[in-house]
Amino acid sequence: MLEETQDDAEIIQRIAALDIGKAEVVCCVRVPAPGSAGRRVQEVRICSTMTRSLAEMADWLGGLGVSRVVMEATSDYWKPVFYLLEAHGFQTWLVNARDVKHLPGRPKTDKLDAIWLCKVAERQMLRPSFVPPEPIRRLRDLTRYRVDLVGERGREKNRVEKLLEDAQIKLSAVASDIFGVSGRAMMDALIAGERDPAVLAGMARTRMRTKIGQLHEAFIGHFTNHHAFLLQRMLAHIDAVNADITAVEERIEEVIDPFAHAVTRLDEIPGIGVTAARAIIAEIGTDMGRFPTPAHLASWAKFAPGVKESAGKTKGTAATGHGNPYLARVLGEAAVGAARTNTFLGERYRRIARRRGKKKAIVAIGRSILTIIWHLLSDDHATYTDLGPGYYDTHTGTQRALRNHLRNLEALGYTVTLHPAA
Known about the structure:
- The protein is an alpha/beta fold.
- It contains 17 helices and seven strands.
- It is extended and about 95 Å long.
């Protein structure tokens, strides 16, 4: 049976493709041959990645009437080229380098890569990657930098703990957070030259005072001036990173203002707080027109199972693949947070975790959260309503519930006989 498809076989008449490096850009242009129907001509130019040279290339492309410019995602070198051409009014496409690999066994040069990319693009055999608009890009830079700063602060705190262990100071074995008010006062005293365990333990405050005896034992060590010097530098680094995080968060407050309504709506989802909502908006934007359905969004984020089938048989379990790491991190944290709640998402996590394990349950809840986000951002009037933890019990059939209960009891070693109630 013949099936109609939505493929567009029309060749893009005037197109350019770029092979981008750090210092040079190889540009291939293909346009219709003058006076010869159906034939095409191409020209390849090499230009510098300096702004003036890129502007001259843009003027050249504009003079040829080029409508679309396609480039590979090469490290971060594509960004200045993409943004400049975007500002000149071109339809700029960023494509995945994996989708445009040259045929095996053929010679590979920058020029041949640009020609191959142009030929594939003119036949519309590529799909563009998601590049958010400028306001979202600015927000993304800030939220990602905040994540990197938090990671750097965590690494420096680990160094502090290792240094104390090296000096036989077992503060982390007694205090759950050595960087709290009490722990920080004790470390400052160590730097200042205080070595008396009783004096150091006496600096404990509030609930830590119940552990003064343990703290006295923890501070019996070999803390030297060498350790004091390193500890002072580490704590100063942590303070500097804390100041940077505060400054970045204040800037995020300003940049997120146009999207404040979206942040408030996403904050209603279990497991998602204000910080997570901002990070999600920074990664996917607020315009869901880019993703026709929630499944498209989940597929782009790699929160959907892959397809691996041959000869009519499924070849094992296909992995989801590697998507946006910043989005995957925040969705994973949101899924873990939702798992601790007495909500529909929490109950869904527990049901899947019992059968498939915790890792797959986190991915499943992450996809459910993405689906909710898509609906909230697609419809300004949509609101989140929790179905409740008892949704599965009240909306599954009686026979299915009986089978599940019987299976659980038999797994515990019981033999069950059912008799209907009078």
